[in-house]
Design a protein that fits this description.
By secondary structure, this protein is α/β, with parallel strands linked by helices. Helix content is 34%, strand content 17%. The chain is built from 15 helices and 19 strands.
Length: 480
């Protein structure tokens, strides 16, 4: 019965639906209306689209939180530094930074410089591999025979002995801080040998009166940074910053070139430089000209060799020989100047031949006559080079300390266990490290082979867009 009823209802509905469709097709939709039952919260399609549009606009609009915040929000975003503006060079020299130090030292900053730019562990210093001659060669682009700083201890034509020369008047060639200043490049130079206490019409914008040997690398960098900030108040910004750090050399001398303390000093210098450059880059907008390209140049004066023996040259030669010569000795190099010689030329020759014969008996050093120095050393300065140049064998160093014997162990001397000054061809340990990178644009990339210090002056000049000093070598590193 129920099945029959359901079947009848379905049939009726089908008939009605058929009739409705037929009527719709016959007379069209005119007169037919649909009623819509609304529910709470229902919205029209127009309202839904309008709400969507408003919501989308709200998501992209900057909310207004007040006048000050509104002004801050509506500022144009700061333009990214393109590096297309003038170059700013920060040149840091690390004395004693031997070519193999990155093999054991923790130095992520220097290793990043090598990745971002260019580097080599084959920096070949010019002779003599000493602090003051090497720094001066790098700064002037000429060799010791021309710039006149032939050792860390020199004798002037007047006979004055100057230890660790600082007076710029002793320079016989123009250093880059003068070259740059003369051509309108504002310069800061801290702790670079012979940059202190500058006088005259052309001098760096900022320099120090004296060198503080007890200052830490971190303190040196912070002092330079404070001076840089002070100097950046106007539109005339610094474009050359030169610094010397001394922690690695100090620890290398005190503990030995391969001591844990020396490797730790490399890591400490690396950490201090990282902090310094992080701050420089964070403050770049105020420290540098618009869109300036930061170029970081890290070099060394020489490497270090293990010290086996000290040599007191006066004690070794004896009072009789010393009565007829003055000797100015430091580390591996000594200059000997004859004095109280016979006036008669024949007697003078006999005396000098005898003196040379006595020198030749000493096995610890080579004796080179002034007019027989190797030409590739570029060491013959007419007024400052000695009549004889004594060059110690690797592992020996001249010392002022007098012990029971003229040649003695480091423990009896000044307490140093590292030494330097030897020609590179005799001690590869004199080779050092060099890094150069630029942010955002590096002037050089890749691993370099051997490089010489003579090219550094012209390289920095080229990056700065100025001419090298008169007489300086014009060859540069292979810049892009």
């Amino acid at each position: 019965m129920f099945r029959s009823l359901a079947s009848s209802l379905i049939t009726l509905i089908a008939i009605l639906l058929f009739a409705f469709v037929t009527l719709f097709l016959w007379s069209g939709s005119e007169g037919i209306q649909f009623a819509r039952n609304s529910f709470e919260g229902d919205k029209s399609t127009v309202q839904v689209l309008e709400d969507f549009r408003r919501a989308n606009m709200a998501a992209t609009e900057v909310p207004v939180k007040g006048d000050d915040e509104e002004k801050e929000m509506t500022k144009e975003p700061a333009a990214q530094n393109s590096g297309d503006g003038p170059a700013v060079v920060v040149w840091i020299n690390i004395p004693g930074f031997r070519g193999d130090y990155l093999e054991k030292a923790e130095a992520p900053f220097l290793k990043k410089l090598a990745t971002d730019g260019a580097a080599t562990n084959k920096l070949r210093p010019s002779f003599p591999c000493l602090t003051y001659p090497s720094h001066t060669t790098m700064a002037t682009g000429v060799t010791p025979d021309k710039h006149g700083i032939i050792a860390d201890r020199i004798r002037t034509p007047s006979g004055e002995i100057v230890d660790k020369p600082m007076d710029p008047a002793l320079l016989l060639a123009e250093p880059i801080w003068v070259t740059a200043t003369r051509q309108g490049v504002k310069t800061l130079v801290h702790d670079w040998p012979l940059s202190q206490n500058q006088t005259g019409d052309i001098k760096a914008a900022h320099f120090l009166d004296a060198y503080d040997p007890d200052s830490t690398d971190e303190a040196r960098l912070n002092k330079a940074l404070e001076q840089w900030r002070t100097s950046s108040a106007g539109d005339d910004k610094l474009r050359l910053v030169m610094l010397r750090l001394n922690g690695v050399l100090r620890e290398g001398l005190l503990h030995g070139p391969r001591a844990d303390e020396t490797y730790a000093a490399v890591g400490a210098a690396d950490k201090a430089m990282q902090a310094f450059f992080d701050t420089v880059q964070a403050e770049w907008a105020t420290l540098a000209p618009p869109n300036a390209n930061l170029v970081i140049f890290v070099t060394t004066d020489h490497g270090l060799a293990e010290l086996d023996k000290n040599v007191n040259i006066g004690h070794l030669l004896g009072d009789e020989m010393m009565a007829n010569c003055d000797i100015v000795a430091h580390d591996a190099v000594a200059n000997l100047y004859f004095k109280n010689l016979p006036e008669n030329e024949g007697e003078k020759k006999i005396f000098i031949d005898k003196f040379d014969n006595e020198l030749s008996k000493r096995i610890y050093f080579r004796t080179l006559k002034k007019d027989a120095l190797p030409s590739e050393w570029f060491y013959l300065n007419p007024e400052r080079t000695g009549d004889r140049v004594l060059v110690l064998k690797t592992g020996y160093a001249f010392a002022d300390t007098k012990a029971s014997e003229p040649v003695f162990d480091p423990t009896e001397g000044p307490g140093f266990f590292g030494s330097f000054g030897y020609p590179v061809e005799e001690s590869i340990r004199m080779s050092g490290q060099m890094f150069i990178a630029g942010y955002p644009n590096s002037p050089l990339s890749g691993t370099l082979d051997e490089v010489g210090q003579l090219t550094f002056h012209a390289t920095v000049c080229k990056i700065l867009g100025i001419e090298p000093a008169p007489g300086a070598v014009t060859e540069t590193l292979p810049l892009r």
